[in-house]
Amino acid sequence: MRLLIFGFGYSATAIAEELRGRAEWIGGTVRDESKAAAAKNAGVEPLLFGGAQISAALAQATHIIQSIPPGDSGDPVLARHADEIRTAKNLRWIGYLSTVGVYGDHGGAWVNEDTPPNPQQPRTRARVEAETAWGQIGQPLATFRIAGIYGPGRNALINIADGSARRIVKQDQIFNRVHVADIGASVATAAMQEATGVFNLADDEPAPPQDVIAFAANLMGVAPPPEIDFATAELSPMARSFYGENRRVANTRLKRDLGLSLRFPTYREGLSGMWRDGSWR
What we know:
It contains eleven helices and 13 strands. It is of the alpha/beta class and 281 residues long. It has one domain: Rossmann fold, CATH 3.40.50.720. Helix 1 crosses helix 7 (180-193) and helix 8 (209-220) packs parallel to helix 11 (267-277). The two termini are 32 Å apart.
């Protein structure tokens, strides 16, 4: 395996950690030299996105992971490298990291990988367009629709500690989450199996966001912040838009087709594990 990762960020770091020692070479694109050190520390060769090295890396890559979100002009990787990817002779598999937001609002009902996308926000419409464009590239493709990501450095424990946590309550509102370690394990397994199709990367228990904050506070032995009614909460337009969609996301194919069990099936295992070993910060 020679793996090229477009967008070496939070999730990509977890994926590279799972594949280090299994791949002959892993490269990851960065936007500037300040991010190169983090890639090197993860055993990944940093490549400047848009640089001359990318074409050579694509010619040798057997696997690609694309984690850069689409912009105003569409998918940034395809905008630069579609022809090279389409004709890459060594390429055996592509993994595209998308979002469960493409399903839109289902009034709290369950969705799975067979549920047609119904994007209701400009950003999720752009995601569906990017998914479609990658599906038309003519190479084996796995699309990962990812729920709300948490893990070391990004979690409710940190929000409690720094005073930014808010228990916003909207009746019957639920969200799925997924620990970054489960993203790493799932995408790495799919890459090694060269599995194709759509996979929802989401935990087993969609839950109200206020419950997650309360559980984190209990772990830390502090009082949770007071509940705030959604109707009167001060939220950015972006944050408020997330509450406009309500669904439960099933991870059927993850378990059935990849044979995986989540390391952190609910937020309770994820937060408890990080609190116990001190990795939450």
